[in-house]
Amino acid sequence: MNPYERRLCVRCGTLLDPARAPGEAPRPPWWRRLLPRRERHPLAAGTRPKRRAWRRPRLTLPWILVVLLVAAWFGRAQLTELFSFAQSSTGDPKPVHPAQVRASSQAASHHAQAAFDGFNNRYWAPADPGRGTGQYLEADFERPVRLRELLITSGSSTKSDEFLGQARPSKITVTLVSSEGERTSKVLNLSDAPGQQSFTVRGSDVTRVRLTVDAAYGVRADRRVAVAEVEFFGRQ
C-alpha cells in the first residue's frame, strides 16, 4: 500500500527504509556482515538434511601429551635449573653474605672483617703502606651463589674530609671461583669519590671471590690502600 517515495507508512506511521527497493530483503546487521555465512540451498522435495557424523577422537593428541609428560619427567633436573636461572635473571638480586673472609695481609685494627661488617666507618688496609699492588681481599660462601652485582666503598670513610686520609684503589681485579675450580676475572675501574660504587659482576655457581688491588689513588709512603666496604648481591 505504501508508494516507493514515502518514508512513513500510511497505516502505522513506521519509518520506511528508502534505500531498499521494493521486495528487497532487509540488510543484515553489521555484526553479521563481519563473518560471511554460507549460502543455504533449498532442499529438493522429499529430501531431508544430512546428519553430521560424530568424528571419533584421534589418538595423535593423547600420544603427544604422553610424550611431553615423559620428556618433562626425565628432564625435570634441567627444567628446575632453567627455572632457577630465569628467576635469578629477572628477579631483584638479594644480599649475599660470605661465610669466611681473609686478606693477603692486614694492618693492626684494620682487619679483613672490617670490609664485610656492614659499617663504612671501619676499613681494611694491608700491613705495609704504599701502592698496595697485589694485596687482596677474599670471601668464601657457604653454598654456591649466582652473583650479579658488587658494591665497593673505597677509602677509609664516606666522609669527604676522612676519605682522603688514606690511599684509595683505582683498579681492582675481581676473580670468581666456581665449585669446580673454574676461574673468571673482570677488571673494575673505580672513581676517586666517597660512597658506594656499583659494578655488574655476573657468575654462576660461585664459591669464592677475590678482589686484588692493581692501582691506587693518593699513594704516599705513610698511607695504606683502604677499602671500607664490599657487598655482594645475587641468589643462592
UniProtKB/TrEMBL annotation:
Q: Which domain of life is it from?
A: Bacteria
Which SUPFAM superfamilies does the protein's record reference? Answer: Galactose-binding domain-like
> What would be one Pfam family of this protein?
NADase_transloc
Per the database record, which ranges form the NAD glycohydrolase translocation F5/8 type C domain? 103-232
Which segments cross the bilayer?
A: 59-75
Q: Which UniProt keywords apply?
A: Membrane, Transmembrane, Transmembrane helix
InterPro entries named in the record: Galactose-bd-like_sf (IPR008979), NADase_transloc (IPR057561)
What NCBIfam families does the database record attribute to this sequence? NADase_discoid (NF047619)
The name on file for this protein is NAD glycohydrolase translocation F5/8 type C domain-containing protein
What is the species listed in this Swiss-Prot or TrEMBL entry?
A: Streptomyces macrolidinus
Source taxonomy:
Bacteria, Bacillati, Actinomycetota, Actinomycetes, Kitasatosporales
